[in-house]
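Request: Have a read of the protein record below and say how the chain folds.
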Amino acid sequence: CNRCGESLHARINLSNDLSLEYDDAGKASYHVRKVLIGAGRCFQQVEVLLTFTPERRLVDRQVSGGKFLDAGG
């Protein structure tokens, strides 16, 4: 969180959470949007947008209101 510095965690279920979308050329991709809120320090929303290939490999990630951390936290 950019406001309080709290580390937020989320899980993405690649079988159930992804939404299939097609662009104007008919190319498929998957997208997921998660809004995260901390556990009490502040109530700032952190929005995460992820884009995946049709094979469900991550190709793009965006965050608003926070920043991505590596797996170590």
